[in-house]
Amino acid sequence: MSEPLFEKIALVGIGLIGSSLARVIGREGLARHVSIATRSPETLARAEELKLGDSYTASAAEAVRDADLVIVSVPVGSSGAVAAEIAPALKAGAIVTDVGSTKGSVIAQMAPHMPANVHFIPGHPLAGTEKSGPDAGFADLFENRWCIFTPLPGTDPQALEKLSEFWRRCGSNIDTMDPEHHDMVLAIVSHLPHIIAYNIVGTADDLEAVTKSEVIKYSASGFRDFTRLAASDPTMWRDVCLHNKDAILEMLARFSEDLASLQRAIRWGDGDKLFDMFTRTRAVRRSIIDAGQEIDAPDFGRQAIEHPAKT
Ligand SMILES: NC(=O)C1=CN([C@@H]2O[C@H](COP(=O)(O)OP(=O)(O)OC[C@H]3O[C@@H](n4cnc5c(N)ncnc54)[C@H](O)[C@@H]3O)[C@@H](O)[C@H]2O)C=CC1
Ligand SMILES: O=C(O)C(=O)Cc1ccc(O)cc1
User: Fold this and answer.
1) How far apart are alpha carbons 119 and 107 in whole angstroms?
2) What domains sit in the chain, N to C, each tagged with a CATH number?
3) How far does residue 146's CA lie from ligand 1's centre (Å)?
4) What highest taxon heads this organism's lineage (predicted)?
């Protein structure tokens, strides 16, 4: 095991992502001390039972005291409150980062609270599952996944490199982009698929009153795939929808237009149009496989991130 990268890492929020970080930090020996803070006493007690860190507190401010790296892993709607709470306790020179699924809103909420003598570097690991809470995490979650940074202008290159090295040692590949671009790309490759899944499962659930248990009894694998996404954490996804509103609405508008065109082709029996479109979409999956990407693991849209101009 190599030298720890940091003396003390503070994890604020210890759900799926925070606890996966705790596990990989422990496995790779990335810190001498890991302090854990989370709001709910039950979650904190569970984190301690699971021995995820070295110290445990309900106070985020207490956890970040003397920390060289602070990772905020809470639903995006809570990031402003956490930033306000930790700001007075941050050590000079500390790196503060987050893992939120939206970036523009997290920056708007957190940056105003950050003291000038800390390095605030927003981040987003493109790795996750539909599960939540400290039991759901695992050390391999970030292996071979992307971690995207959306650094603010003037970010210290050494701090960025140190944080990049941290994520590389967690198994991730690093990319950087501006927050607006991140939010637009993630709206189509991650946020819309979840919204569509919530919607289709909701529609089926409404129908179930009519069809009794047929929706469950005959659910084919296509529908089952949607139910996995639609089982994702309601608080997290409510916050994503509210905090990436503009990009999601833009993508939903395009999606609805395309859906209407598909609907029209079905109504008018335009088989050529259906065939052409289904052929085009089949090629998208082929190109993901050809790019050597694991397709059956929970993953989404690396292709779109690598080639954001392709629509
Ligand atoms: N679940 C996923 O697949 C992925 C999630 N993310 C992002 O990671 C962040 C965390 O998500 P998960 O770990 O999945 O959620 P989770 O629900 O498993 O865990 C959230 C944690 O935050 C704590 N928390 C909530 N509000 C808090 C507050 N004000 N102060 C302190 N702790 C607070 C909760 O007690 C819990 O420990 C979110 O911003 C999400 O957008 C990013 C990549 C993947
Ligand atoms: O479970 C899945 O398929 C996911 O897509 C997980 C996920 C959810 C949100 C993110 O910001 C990143 C990854």
Assistant:
1) 13
2) 6-177 (3.40.50.720), 181-306 (1.10.3660.10)
3) 18
4) Bacteria
At 209, give phi and psi (nearest 5°).
-55, -35
Whether 97 is in the pocket of ligand 2, judged by its Cβ within 6 Å, is no
Maximal C-alpha separation, the chain: 67
Average pLDDT over residues 70-90: 98
Question: Which stretches of 62-109 are assigned E, i.e. beta strand?
Answer: 69-72, 95-98
Determine whether the shortest distance from the Cβ of 80 to ligand 1 is under 6 A: no
Measure 101 CA to ligand 2 centroid, in angstroms.
8
User: What CA–CA distance (Å, rounded) separates 33 from 28?
Assistant: 13
Cα separation of 178 and 176, whole Å?
7
Ligand 1 atom with the shortest distance to the CA of 131: 1
Q: What's the DSSP call for residue 79?
A: H
How, if at all, do strands 146-149 and 173-176 pair?
Answer: parallel
Question: Which ligand is in closest contact with the Cα of 41?
Answer: 1
For ligand 2, say whether the CB of 250 is within 6 Å of any of its atoms.
no
Compute how many other C-beta atoms are within 10 angstroms of the C-beta atom of residue 69: 25
- Closest residue to atom 2 of ligand 2, CA basis: 129
User: Is 209 strand, coil or helix?
Assistant: helix
The span from the CA of 17 to the CA of 13, in Å, is 8
pLDDT in tens, 123-170: 999 999 999 999 999 999 999 999 999 999 999 999 999 999 999 999
